[in-house]
Design goal:
The protein is an alpha+beta fold. A six-stranded antiparallel sheet has the order 1-2-3-5-4-6. The radius of gyration is 15 Å and the shape is globular. The two termini are 28 Å apart. About 24% of the residues have low confidence. Bound molecules: zinc ion (2 copies). The site of one zinc ion has 6 residues, from helix 2. Pfam families: DcpS_C. InterPro entries: HIT-like, HIT-like_sf. This is Adenosine 5'-monophosphoramidase HINT3.
Length: 183
Amino acid sequence: MAGEEAAAAAAAPEAAGPGPAQPPAEARPDGGEAGNGGGYDGKCVFCRIARREEPGTALLPCEYEDLVCFRDIRPGAPHHYLVVPVEHMGNCKTLKKEHIPVGKAEGRKMKEKWCSMKKMVEVGKTVLQRNNFSDLNDVRMGFHWPPFCSISHLHLHVLAPASQLGFLSRLIYRINSYWFITL
Ligand SMILES: [Zn+2]
Ligand SMILES: [Zn+2]
């Protein structure tokens, strides 16, 4: 099942249809933790990976215990990692582009989510450095914009070197396209 992200990556752009069934993000306007406790969806592959229930996917060291980091099963670049919150958290659809600049998130309901997105970027940089990739100008990081996302569990893609993305990856992870919001 860890292959779902891969299956999505094979189709451009991630149009592999809806991922595991779960409430639409719209049902949770603040994009929060759904308030239904647990924050775990057994049908969601990223939830299972985060809980080490997917033996095929090894978790990489991560400095935050509420986030996990692992390699994309179908890398689009020599380095391709995913950073994912342990708690099942919907995708970034509830965040608008104008919310992306950090300061503007202050006082907003999505502040918490935004903070975790910032942390995710931090983790992404750290994992690159740990894997001996230090040119942070040659990195592509971003969130997929639904519905071009087979997994509706918030995840940050970290790809490097950006200059070595293949044709398909350049499409799937295109800078500030409407399906891929880069940071
Ligand atoms: Zn999940
Ligand atoms: Zn994605």
